[in-house]
Amino acid sequence: MVEMKDVKVVYQSSDTVALDGVSMSIAEGEFVFLVGPSGSGKTTVMKLITGEIRADAGQIVVNDFNMRTIRRRKLPKMRRTIGAIFQDYRLIENMNVYDNVAFAMRVVGAPNREIRKRVPYVLELVGLEGREKRMPNELSGGEQQRVAIARALALKPEILCFDEPTSALDPELTKEVLDVIRDLAGSGITMVVVTHELSFAKDVSSKAVFMDGGLIIEQGDSKDFFRSPKEERTREFLKMN
Ligand code: ADP
User: In terms of CB atoms within 10 Å, which end of the chain has fewer, N or C?
Assistant: First the structure.
């Protein structure tokens, strides 16, 4: 669950107001697409949710943690409720697929019994059964990204965050990864996805949030959003992309 109210973020180093009063709520089980031009603030929203940065003003609550007041030492506990998948998936190069996922569970203290049960389960969810023994450099980019998704799923996060999960992949591998995301969308897990793949977003039943210039311009059911956007800026964006 995410609740943001009038959230502002200023990057001092570039003197940029990245978010200029953003309010949104993401309910449990909701599937949300964040779309908008480059520089509109989408990644900043993701970084707020994962606790990588802090808001300068406003209120933000993520999975019952108040992100404005949370203590640094509480952050690891909070982060365990979030699975984050970025374009650079950072697998451990000298561990095979199975161990990459198992290691993530071991780090958070999962018992061996549970690891043995859950790793095969999540690898199957992302379509990687039979690939357990492969090393990361023996996998396609799409498969590597699916290992990253499996690793996140293994920890049973309350929210999965995807920040442009396919932007480093060619069209065919992009489809592989989007298919996995589409399957997960039906599983009831809360997901927030930043993507430029508008036709994918259009296709999957979800909520769409359109950002521009650090503001939310429009948000709503993705079907309505793509079929009949209300705001002129949304229409322009959809026409151009
Ligand atoms: P998007 O994900 O929509 O492309 P971002 O949230 O990455 O947008 O960026 C929003 C604005 O903040 C942009 O103008 C960007 O240049 C600026 N920005 C993002 N990250 C940083 C940073 N670490 N330091 C300084 N400025 C940043």
Answer: C
Counting from 1 in the atom list of ligand 1, the atom nearest the Cα of 43 is 2
Question: Ligand 1 mean position to 135 CA, how many Å?
Answer: 34
Strand-by-strand arrangement of the 2-11 sheet: 16-26, 2-11, 57-62, 65-66
From the CB of 195, is ligand 1 less than 6 Å away? Answer: no
What is the pTM (predicted TM-score) of this model? 0.93
Cα–ligand 1 centroid distance for 162 (angstroms):
17
For ligand 1, say whether the CB of 39 is within 6 Å of any of its atoms. yes
Q: Provide mean pLDDT across the span 214-238.
A: 94
Three-state DSSP state, 145 = helix
For helices 171-185 and 141-154, give the axis angle rounded to 10 degrees.
Answer: 20
CB atoms within 10 A of CB 79: 18
Nearest by Cα to 206 from 6, 197, 154, 11:
197
44 lines ligand 1 (CB under 6 A): yes
- pLDDT given for residue 136 in this prediction: 96
Cβ neighbours for 199, distance < 8 A, ≥ 6 positions apart: none
